[in-house]
Structure formats: structure tokens, C-alpha cells
């Protein structure tokens, strides 16, 4: 039994079915049209729909600001927000329908409703499923908890997804706000703020932390801050939110700036994106002797096993980054462990991506973290500006940076800010999984002209032998 059908849950169910298990998956998601849907937050109101809107807004901004440089002119450029949102909904419908097809193909039973552990029945676990006014009980030999996460809200600031929105409401605006405020300069805040800025909103982001993208490499932080400011995103760091007042058509945010001065930000809409919390409420964990920690996470070992034999937890409800692809890998891992195999995950080789423009992606460790631990390192960096393909497609912002061990040359971290960074980072992940040296990437033939050549040049730059600069 898998509880939850997000990227971790549905992949775990499919892999377990491939390995010959009889599998059921519980999912309670009901979409805005009142239909039960598989896929969880990611497919319904997260990764997939946000990337659809990001793509639409990027194309609009390119047409508006950059097509002229390509010799393309057009008149009466306009945005049809309803059509844009409709396209997003169509993509969501297609991809969630695809998961339904995969469940049928792999003979996985979809139990529609809320799944809750209800103790043991001999050697098996009881799971109660309630929904649509009825309740039924099931038993399973193994249980995988994959219930994901939900948006963290500000205390005393109700989210109505009209004036004050979380990520879900911010994906369903019916018009472009004149002034948009965003609390939180993390992944979601930057991505959604970028969508509506490109479409014409004046966007101001308020961030409590004193550093911008503090978990990323310092070189990425500096470059991203410069590019986003140039694009028109206003970002205030080190702020303290004092209060939020709303009317039927506007919102007012009172805050203290980094110097402690009282400030007020007036806007038409507010997006609250201050992180996410695990969905571990009302799961009946105590019925089998489990409990969540003080932050709501389910404690697990390195193989996602809880302290109760045959009960596993994966994805956003356990330690580690809240990333869909991390959840998928853990889903496969657990299904294979149940099958008696011995898989593993190297958590240092899980890539991160922020789908701004340019995209930001990284894997491994930052230069500042390596220096703090006293590791002797060497680094190479190469700009997109010197790459012929980047020039040809008009995407010359950013760079690729590779960090390697000073003695062994093993790659310890790769940091990218550029167009297509989400695709380029995959080469770095493969290299690090195989414990490659920077010299290895430098010796591999890359296609010309391509953005991937910048990865090779950055690897060569580690030993100060880049060829095209």
C-alpha cells in the first residue's frame, strides 16, 4: 500500500508492480473541477503547471523585448491570461491522465480518499480509506508513506487564493496584477514572481534571510541578484514582516527593513512562499507506534525505513531536499528494497534547479562550504558569453562553474546559471556519480555548436586551460 500518489508515491507503486507485487495506492486529491486526480501537488498545482506558465511568460517576454534583435517584428502583442491558464490546465490534465493510464497498465488499484493507518491485523497493517461519504478498511504487508507537503502559511494571514495566495492560487490568477508582492525569495517565490513580472506586474519580493539564495554557491548568488535586478525584480533582504492587511481588492504589508526601519508595501495581490511543511497530520502514525518529529517529518534511516519493520516513508515527509526527483528515486529505492534488492542513493548527487530565466542549477557542494570544512579545492568557470551557440540563440547570460579536489581532481560541485541549466546539470550528475575528475569532462568530445561546450570549457578552466577565452 502506497499512501499518496505524487512523484514519489506513483513511481513507488509502479516499480513495486513491475517487481510482481500486488499494489494499491491511496489518493484523496480533488481538482478545481471536483474530479479525483492522481499526481499530488507536483503534477496538479506545483512543478508541472508552474513550468507551463513560466514557458508562456518567457515566450511573451522574448517576443516583446528580444525578437527585434533576431530581425522579427510584430504589432499588437498581447497576453490572453485565460488562454495561458487554459493551456496550463490542459497539460495538467494530460499528465495526470497519463499516471492513471500507467496505473491501469501496471494493474495498480487506485483507492480514492484519505488514507490513514489504523493499527495492525496480525502481521499486516490496516489502512482506513475515507472519502465521498464512505469508509473502507484494507490491509497490506508493506506500507510506503508518500504524502508530500503543503505550503507553509504566515500566522494570522489567511490565504484566500484571491488577494493572498500560496503557490496554488498564484497559478490561477485570471488577470495580471498591477502590483504584486511576494513574501519569500526561495524557489517558488522567484519562479512565480518571474511569471507575473514578465507579463507586466511590478513585483517586489520580501525575504527574511540576510542573504539571497543563501544555500547556493556565492558566485551564483552574485550573478542571479545582478540579473534579476536588471530584469526588474525588486528584492528586499533581511526584512521582518509585522502584519498584513487586506481589502476586497488590495493588500498592505507592514515590515521592518534590514536596518530596522518601518516600511509599508501596497499591492494588488500577495503570494506567500515561505517554504513547505510535511503532510503528516491525520495519518494515524501513533496506531502503529510511529510519530513525526517536532518539524512534522517522519524519522527514517538511510534507506527510508521507519523504526516499524515494513513501513517506509519517502519524499517530502522525510529528511533531505523537498524535490520531486528525490522522491522518485526514493520510491524506486524502497520498492526494490522490499523486493530484496540492495539499491542506494547518493544524496550528494541530487541536482537542484530553479526555473527562473536564466535557470539556476547545481549539484554537490558550494565553494564556501568546502572552504569552511578546510578542503583544498580548485575551481574553473566559463561564461556563456563566449559560447557560439549561446550567441546564436540570444542567451549569453550566466556561466558554468566546476569545483574539484585540489589533489585528486574529483569533481565536488557544479554550479550553473544559464539557459537550459536544468538539462546541462545532468552531465555533471553523471560525472559525479561515477566519481569523475574534471579532466574527464575536459577530455570528452562535446558537440559544436552547443551550450554543453561550456561544461567542457569550465572543466578545462579548473586547470587553467580553457580554450576559448
TrEMBL record:
Cofactor binding notes: Binds 1 FAD per subunit.
Name the PROSITE patterns for this protein.
PYRIDINE_REDOX_1 (PS00076)
Q: Which domain of life is it from?
A: Bacteria
Q: Might you give the EC number(s) for this enzyme?
A: 1.8.1.4
Q: What class of enzyme is it?
A: oxidoreductase
GO MF terms here are: dihydrolipoyl dehydrogenase (NADH) activity
* Additional free-text comment from the UniProt record: The active site is a redox-active disulfide bond.
Major subcellular site? cytoplasm
Family per similarity comment: Belongs to the class-I pyridine nucleotide-disulfide oxidoreductase family.
List the NCBIfam families hit by this protein, alphabetically.
lipoamide_DH
Q: Could you tell me which residue ranges the FAD/NAD(P)-binding domain spans? A: 1-331
UniProt subcellular location:
Cytoplasm
Statement: the UniProt record of this protein carries the keyword Lipoprotein: no
Q: Give the Pyridine nucleotide-disulphide oxidoreductase dimerisation domain ranges.
A: 350-459
**Record keywords:** Cytoplasm, Disulfide bond, FAD, Flavoprotein, NAD, Oxidoreductase, Redox-active center
Q: Which cofactor does it need?
A: FAD
Protein name as it appears in the record:
Dihydrolipoyl dehydrogenase
Q: Which reaction does it catalyse?
A: N(6)-[(R)-dihydrolipoyl]-L-lysyl-[protein] + NAD(+) = N(6)-[(R)-lipoyl]-L-lysyl-[protein] + NADH + H(+)
Q: Which Pfam families match?
A: Pyr_redox_2 (PF07992), Pyr_redox_dim (PF02852)
Amino acid at each position: 500500500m502506497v499512501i499518496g500518489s505524487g512523484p514519489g508515491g506513483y513511481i513507488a507503486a509502479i516499480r513495486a508492480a513491475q517487481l510482481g507485487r500486488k499494489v494499491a495506492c491511496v489518493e484523496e486529491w480533488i481538482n478545481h473541477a471536483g474530479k479525483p486526480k492522481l499526481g499530488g501537488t507536483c503534477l496538479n498545482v506545483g512543478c508541472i503547471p508552474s513550468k507551463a506558465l513560466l514557458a508562456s511568460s518567457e515566450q511573451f517576454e522574448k517576443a516583446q523585448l528580444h525578437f527585434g534583435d533576431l530581425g522579427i517584428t510584430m504589432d499588437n502583442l498581447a497576453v490572453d491570461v485565460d488562454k495561458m491558464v487554459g493551456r496550463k490546465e490542459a497539460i495538467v490534465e494530460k499528465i495526470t491522465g497519463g499516471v492513471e493510464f500507467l496505473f491501469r497498465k501496471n494493474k495498480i488499484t487506485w483507492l480514492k480518499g484519505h488514507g490513514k493507518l489504523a493499527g495492525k491485523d496480525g502481521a499486516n497493517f490496516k489502512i482506513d480509506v475515507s472519502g465521498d461519504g464512505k469508509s473502507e478498511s484494507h490491509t497490506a504487508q508493506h506500507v510506503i508513506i508518500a504524502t508530500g507537503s503543503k505550503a507553509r502559511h504566515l500566522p494570522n494571514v489567511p490565504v484566500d487564493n484571491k488577494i493572498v495566495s500560496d503557490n496554488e492560487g498564484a497559478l490561477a490568477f485570471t488577470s495580471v496584477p498591477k502590483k504584486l508582492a511576494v513574501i519569500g525569495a526561495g524557489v517558488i517565490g522567484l519562479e512565480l514572481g518571474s511569471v507575473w513580472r514578465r507579463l507586466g506586474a511590478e513585483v517586489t519580493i520580501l525575504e527574511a534571510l540576510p542573504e539571497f539564495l543563501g544555500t547556493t554557491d556565492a558566485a551564483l548568488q552574485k550573478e542571479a541578484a545582478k540579473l534579476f535586478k536588471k530584469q526588474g525584480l525588486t528584492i528586499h533582504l533581511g526584512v521582518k514582516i509585522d502584519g498584513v492587511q487586506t481589502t476586497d481588492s488590495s493588500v498592505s504589508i507592514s515590515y521592518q527593513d534590514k536596518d530596522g526601519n518601518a516600511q509599508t508595501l501596497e499591492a494588488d495581490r500577495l503570494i506567500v512562499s515561505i517554504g513547505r511543511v510535511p503532510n503528516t497530520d491525520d495519518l494515524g502514525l501513533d496506531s502503529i507506534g510511529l510519530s513525526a518529529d517536532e518539524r512534522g517529518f517522519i524519522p527514517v534511516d538511510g534507506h527510508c525505513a521507519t523504526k516499524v519493520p515494513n513501513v517506509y516513508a519517502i519524499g517530502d515527509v522525510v529528511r533531505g531536499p523537498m524535490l520531486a526527483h528525490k522522491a522518485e528515486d526514493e520510491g524506486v529505492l524502497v520498492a526494490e528494497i522490499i523486493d530484496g534488492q540492495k539499491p542506494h542513493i547518493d544524496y550528494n548527487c541530487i541536482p537542484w534547479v530553479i526555473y527562473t530565466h536564466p535557470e539556476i542549477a547545481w549539484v554537490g557542494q558550494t565553494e564556501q562550504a568546502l572552504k569552511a570544512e578546510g578542503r583544498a579545492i580548485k575551481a574553473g568557470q566559463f561564461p556563456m558569453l563566449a559560447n557560439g551557440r549561446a550567441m546564436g540563440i540570444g542567451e549569453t547570460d550566466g556561466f558554468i562553474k566546476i569545483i574539484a579536489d585540489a589533489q585528486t581532481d574529483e569533481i565536488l560541485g557544479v554550479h550553473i546559471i544559464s539557459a537550459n541549466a536544468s538539462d546541462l546539470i545532468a552531465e555533471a550528475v553523471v560525472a559525479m556519480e561515477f566519481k569523475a575528475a574534471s579532466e574527464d569532462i575536459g577530455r570528452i568530445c562535446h558537440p559544436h555548436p552547443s551550450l554543453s561546450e561550456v561544461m567542457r570549457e569550465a572543466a578545462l578552466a579548473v586547470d587553467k586551460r580553457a580554450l576559448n577565452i
